[in-house]
Write a structure and sequence with these properties.
Blueprint (H helix, E strand, L loop, with lengths): L1 E10 L2 E10 L4 E7 L9 E10 L5 E10 L4 E11 L3 E8 L7 E8 L19 E11 L4 E10 L4 E8 L5 E8 L4 E9 L2 E11 L3 E8 L12 E13 L11 H16 L7 H8 L4 H4 L8
Antiparallel strand pairs: 1-2, 1-8, 2-3, 4-5, 5-6, 6-7, 7-8, 9-10, 9-16, 10-11, 11-12, 12-13, 13-14, 14-15, 15-16
């Protein structure tokens, strides 16, 4: 369940259009739809966004804005409110030097449709399956590394997948481990024939995966700010695969159907599949067949 709105306005003189998605666990996904060509979509990110409910549909919000080009970086912290009438508004301060540089912002409500979701499977709690994300890593120096990531979570707690960066043609494989509450992976980036290994580790929320990243060879790092930071990914699609261990995290409607099928076998022994075979059938169940559809925002 979430509330969604499209907003547009200027931030430090840069016209920006955003899709804001307010999730029920107090997290916010902010996706940049439009920004100046001289900046480029892959060089601007709004991250670490959270909200809490206020009176009369008002939401109190905080988030970070990161803009990076070869010439400069901007790191701002924004604090304000959101409502369906006025949009997103408040004040910002310079996060790299909070004694100087403040101003106001106002992203008003605009008409239109944001990127559509073809599935509503949640991210948390993690379960076996394949998950695709859009977002990126933010360096401690403010650099933005936009990317898409695909994670395949296997039954035995292993992770495989790949990352495709926005500006880099290479597709990098990753491997790692996961539990219901946490996930980590390693990846090697190759630049001019030299590989560097990085580790990412984070915590899932309802639809967001947030955490930290760093280069593994800390002793070889010349600029720690350039080789470590945070990441913020929003779930685009999830194919959660059923297994016995994670049965309780599937929708109640599906669990009721499964219970009926398995209990009916006990009453009638002839012509019915054994439990193990039913469990094999259940692995083909799509989570979204039994999940409640997302309600439109008011």
């Amino acid at each position: 369940m979430w509330e969604e709105g499209l907003v547009a306005g200027d931030l430090v003189g840069l016209p920006v259009k955003l899709r804001a998605r307010f999730y029920g666990d107090s997290t916010v996904g902010l996706h940049v739809l439009e920004c100046p060509d001289e900046i480029g979509l892959g060089n601007m990110a709004f991250t670490e966004a959270t909200h809490c409910d206020g009176p009369n549909g008002l939401k109190h919000v905080q988030f970070s804005a990161n803009v990076s080009t070869p010439e400069f970086t901007i790191v701002l912290r924004l604090v304000g409110t959101y409502d369906a009438t006025h949009g997103l508004r408040g004040k910002w301060f310079n996060a790299t030097n909070n004694l100087h540089g403040t101003g106001g912002f106002h992203f008003g409500i605009v008409d239109g449709d944001g990127p559509a979701l073809d599935a509503i499977s949640p991210l948390y709690p993690l379960a076996p399956g394949t998950y695709t994300f859009r977002g990126g890593a933010i360096g401690a120096n403010g650099r933005v590394y936009a990317s898409r990531i695909t994670l395949q979570l296997l039954d035995e707690g292993r992770v495989s997948g790949y990352v495709q960066e926005h500006f880099v043609p290479q597709q990098c494989a990753l491997s790692g481990s996961w539990t219901r509450n946490q996930i980590s992976w390693h990846i090697t980036y190759v630049v001019e024939g030299v590989g560097s290994e990085y580790v990412y580790y984070g915590t899932p929320t309802q639809r967001l995966l947030r955490g930290a990243w760093q280069r593994c060879e800390v002793d070889e790092i010349e600029s720690l700010a350039a080789e470590s930071g945070r990441f913020d990914y929003e779930l685009e699609h999830a194919d959660r695969r059923w297994c016995r261990k994670y049965h309780k995290y599937f929708p109640p409607t599906f669990r009721a159907v499964a219970r009926t099928l398995l209990l009916s076998r006990r009453g009638r022994r002839s012509g019915l599949l054994p439990s193990d075979l039913w469990c094999h059938v259940f692995t083909y169940v799509n989570y979204d067949w039994f999940a409640c559809r997302v309600l439109d925002a008011p």
